[in-house]
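Two quick folds needed for the group meeting slides. Do the first one here.
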Amino acid sequence: MKTLKFLPSQHDCTQCTWRKPSFFCTLPEEDLRQFSSIKITHAYPKGTMLFMEGQSANGIYVICSGRIKLSTYSEDGRSMIVRIADPGEVIGMSASVAGINYEGSAEVIADCQVNFVRSQEFIKLLNESAPAALNAIRELSLTYHKAHAKICSLGLSASVSDKLAKLFLDWYEINANGDAGAHISMDYTHEEIAEMIGTSRETVTRLLKRFKTRKLITLDRTDLFIPDKRRLQASIGTNRSSSEL
């Protein structure tokens, strides 16, 4: 039997040691107890599909630990990773609140624990709890902001190289250690990175080699190091090549 790679499960939200300043973790104790009473806690191994694009939305998923990949697919089967959801984030909320189908597919890419709440119970919570409703608005707004930034990056970048550089800069902001650069645990495959920026695996492999040659990054297995944010920023707009478009 597969052993899931995360800390012991946390079932009581009011006593959870993973709590952080995000969404339901910030609710007042009474509202948090109400949420805890309606959620169902599950542990899922890597590779599990939580829901599929086009499936009727039956609830929301609050990520306690692990990571989940949200993807969408074209009619000819090509896929694009819309975003990677981390602990504290909520997925499936816009579809559940609107009463429509899930916009994309959700796949576990790192063993995770999630709290599931059925759509009807979630909407009832929002009707009864002003803090929960406000947090839902904040979460949806942040999701919109991330989607807008991604669309701008994909649509306004002159080259695939620029798209990859902007993706790394986003990761830098999350993992920066002052002026000492940023160490990033990059456990994504070249195929997954390609799906994030709308290109091919071969192009990503070629660009990573180019970035390393120019010393914009160093890469040792799953350890990505970005030594200088300003050099990486300066590379944007200077790397256009017909072979990578």
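Then this one, please, same format:
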Amino acid sequence: MSAPANKNNRPVTSAEELSEWMAEGCKSSEEWRIGTEHEKFGFHLDNLKPIEYGGDSGVRAMLEGMRRFGWQPIMEGKNIIGLEGADSAADGSITLEPSGQFELSGGTLKTLHQSCDEVHTHLHQVRTVADELGVGFLGIGFTPKWKRAEMPVMPKERYKLLTSYMAKQGSLGLDIMYRTCTIQVNLDFSSEADMVKKFRVALALQPVATALFANSPFTEGKPNGFLSYRAHAWTDTDPDRTGMLPFVFEDGFGFERYVDYVLDVPMHTVYRDGRYIDATAGTFRDYLAHRLPGLEDRQPVLGDWVNHLATIFPEARLKRFLEMRGADGGPWERLCALPALWVGILYHQPSLDAAYDMVRDWTEEERDDLRTNVARQGLATPFRKGRVQDLARDMVALAREGLAARGNTDGTGADEQIFLKPLEDTLATGRTPAEELLDKFHNSWGGSVDPVFKENAY
């Protein structure tokens, strides 16, 4: 939700054009890249309250301070609302989620070593500026302490419109906007058939990744009964644009079928002349047919479609690449582990084929049950004759095989398998990050969540 409006003004007149545009995302395997994104909560070190936009130690001051590293400002009116590198493809951008969650949308890079170096550089820059301002940043999936009413609101016109809309779409939509953080990786495909196989594997296995990365067991200072409350919140957020997309597993699925789905999802906004226009009265199909109330005379452009695609929130999302969206925010080593997990599986044909064979006979009911149950039970979630921990073990093993086959090494000779270690440690104990936090809460932390602001800080 955080990216600035796309300004591609190429007119769009048919669904066929949209399908063709999405198919143009196909790339040869030599061109495949990795794009890592992660969000984090800012807080004041002296009182552990969330940082507001303005003031001497707020979000605006953070963004201004980051400019010393060569970042260029993204403005909305007089407000700085993000940063971008000189080369947006290689350098990525820094953007804001609705309550000021600081998000790195990384550049498109070739190896996991490059991606992890990017993460380390970014966190070093953030820490440098944050230390000067007396603020910190927390890696976790859901705010452990703050109430919804305490969350600041960023001065972005689009978020004002979305807040009104999301308040009506499930009971936890506003929590998703204002009180969650995630880790995400974006990956490529070579053809429509390759996209279909990868999309099915990504959707089916997303709950397993959710369990491995479960890291949001607290709400308003107390255990909330879940291991990933962020994942639970998505199950009660706008059913029009969330979920496991059962049609992806049907015969004949491809770009055209996905476009048909997105065309019928209610719109959020249209961006024109530097401002956002409320478009919630209809769908993109209505807009394309010039029957969207209040926008009948507007010609849809490709930028409108790109922005609309970004308002679809299934467990894995298709654009001109695939986005894996199932992981809670977490400590720095997990920012490298998430892309390692998916790159190892999706970018190595034997691992991808084996993963597809693993999930191909799962039913729609089983996939939906996994999505719902891992939020509370994590790796202990029952599945057929075993548990999700068994699926996770197989998943990580396939990723390891894929990363070994890629053969990308760093200056010490270590290959990309090193980034899987946090996940293998989790599998060895059978305890998710959330369960580790809960154990500390009930024992060494003495029933307080405050220590998490130190232990999970970047």
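Slide caption for protein two: Residues 33 and 110 are 5 Å apart (CA to CA).
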